[in-house]
Inverse folding.
């Protein structure tokens, strides 16, 4: 399905609903990688529009092509239900990983969320594997000592309610610093160098994004210790609002250099 399907016309869900490229006033060129229609930019889109940058996107579910990595000034890698190991089912993963590697090596700012974080870990040589627990819904995230001292995390409190939707996790790559953990998942975030941030949780979450996830990934809502119900997920409006503040602070630090 495509971002243009009428069933998914939710203006704040994170899909760019005009053309493959949204041109804005600034000369800054940001690029996003989107794996499924229902996991879009969420609250990141509001920040992008407020900053007035040029935004391009590759939507793998819509047969989009990757640009020349040299043209990308910052990269945002979104989530998705597939695994980094599913290259036979999703052959574009091979090209995507190479593209991410090239952008990282060029020293550009990179933000990966959920699957995006796992792709960064994989590209950097770390293991991605099934987590002991599926983690779906709102659960506390704790910053490590390094996370509390990291400028990119300065708008996050030491402990906060994060939004999760994952069954796999990653090891911390060599040379990276672990930023956060949760009761269900020891590695929730890492910083590689000063320009690459990987987040297992979803600070970009907004209300339309939670609605789409519940609608399209409802099969994941099997009762378990770290899996919430639909009503619990959709009812946490305060969590959505708070995470909106967190993602703005992170983007200001990472991308507004």
């Amino acid at each position: 399905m495509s971002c243009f399907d009428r069933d998914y016309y939710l203006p704040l869900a994170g899909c760019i609903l005009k053309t493959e490229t949204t041109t804005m006033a600034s000369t800054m060129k940001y690029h996003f990688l989107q794996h499924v229609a229902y996991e879009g930019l969420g609250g990141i889109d509001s920040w992008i529009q407020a900053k007035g940058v040029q935004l391009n996107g590759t939507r793998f579910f819509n047969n989009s092509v990757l640009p020349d990595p040299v043209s990308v000034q910052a990269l945002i890698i979104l989530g998705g239900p597939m695994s980094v190991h599913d290259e036979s089912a999703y052959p574009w993963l091979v090209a995507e990983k190479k593209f991410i590697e090239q952008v990282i090596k060029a020293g550009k700012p990179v933000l990966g969320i959920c699957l995006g974080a796992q792709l960064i870990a994989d590209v950097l040589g770390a293991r991605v594997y099934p987590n002991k627990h599926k983690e779906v819904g709102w659960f506390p995230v704790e910053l490590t000592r390094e996370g509390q001292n990291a400028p990119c995390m300065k708008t996050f409190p030491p402990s906060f309610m994060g939004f999760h939707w994952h069954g796999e996790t990653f090891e911390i790559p060599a040379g990276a610093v672990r930023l956060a953990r949760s009761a269900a998942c020891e590695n929730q975030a890492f910083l590689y160098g000063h320009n690459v941030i990987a987040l297992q949780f979803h600070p970009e979450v907004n209300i339309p994004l939670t609605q789409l996830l519940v609608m399209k990934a409802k099969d994941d809502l099997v009762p378990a210790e770290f899996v919430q119900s639909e009503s619990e997920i959709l009812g946490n409006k305060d969590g959505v609002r708070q995470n909106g503040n967190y993602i703005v602070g992170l983007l200001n630090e990472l991308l507004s250099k």
Helices lie at 43-51, 92-105, 115-123, 145-149, 207-216, 230-235, 237-255. The longest strand covers residues 128-143. The beta strands are 21-22, 29-34, 54-59, 74-77, 110-113, 128-143, 159-170, 176-181, 189-192, 196-199.
